[in-house]
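Still learning. Any example?
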Amino acid sequence: MKKVILGMMVLVLFLGSCSKKVEETMKPEEEVLKVVLILNGTLGDKSFFDSADNGLNLIEQKYGDKVEVKTIEMSYDETKWEPTLLDVSEEDWDIVVMGTWQMTEMLQEYAPEYPNKKYIIFDTSVDYSLPDMGNVYSIVYKQNDASFVAGALAASVTSSDMPLSNDENIIGFLGGMDIPVINDFLIGYIEGAQYVEPDTKVAVSYIGSFDDSAKGKEMSLAQYSLGADIGYNVAGQAGLGQLDAAKDVSRYAIGVDSDQAAIFTTSDPEKAKLITTSVLKRVDNSILRAIDLHIAGKAPWGEVEVLGFQEEAVGFAENDIYMEIVPEEIRNEMKKIESMIINGEIVVSSAFGMSSEDLNSVRNSVKP
């Protein structure tokens, strides 16, 4: 009898030990952070949306299997935007990322209905005076600061003896739409140009869309014909038309959002060598930064942040082409101007909050 009891005790101890080992090996895995990006456009614009998508690539590279990321192209068809936002909100994504002012009202309507979801909206901000916006983090950029440097460069180029510069003191600006965020680029560009050459004239055109590159090319050709020897495109995919125009007439250009010269270095080196630099709107860096903050428990949910040079959210491409075709004297001056903006010696105006009358006055004052 004692042997039976002893045997049963050994068996219980053995099973208990096995059970403990099974529990240890079957501990729940660390939760995976699921992040989805919905684009109210398509990839392939070589600038804004491609940069946003690269933000998810950076997240995946940094966090590996601790995250799951996905990009959804909603196209430029506005009827697809609201249903997609609702779909991803119903699914098991932890964070939904989107951009541009066109998504603001939808997000303001639906974010309160999904309080357990987190939303990041970039290049615009929701209205935080509305109730239940505590699960939304808005990111806006100091594109006016970076554009000031672009304007200073453009004015320096047009008044230089660079091979493709002419005697006309005219530079070009091609915007996607006549809206505050695009005009914020414009105001900085004009002020930067006038900082270097007060008499600089700026030919300004708006395409009316962000995907009509043919119209972008047509408008850019008109600016070059007017006498502009360098143009700046702030129009997403439509702005690629300006780069085509620059190649057609052998004039200089300034890219936007991504390093557009680097993009064309292999596929179209003739075009790439005309892109003096690009104003970098680092949507990718800002999205990665947002996820870093969230993981660290420091994301400012329920707030808007304005990011600039210091956060590496805007910048100025200093690639091999820039170093080759822009004279050292001009490059040194651009570096000095950037430093002056960072330390507050130069304060750049913004189109946000500017009245229509004041904006028109600025545009008319530099009209060729």
Q: What stands out?
A: The CA atoms of residues 35 and 69 lie 5 Å apart. Residues 2-25 form the longest helix (24 residues). The first strand starts at residue 33 and ends at 39.
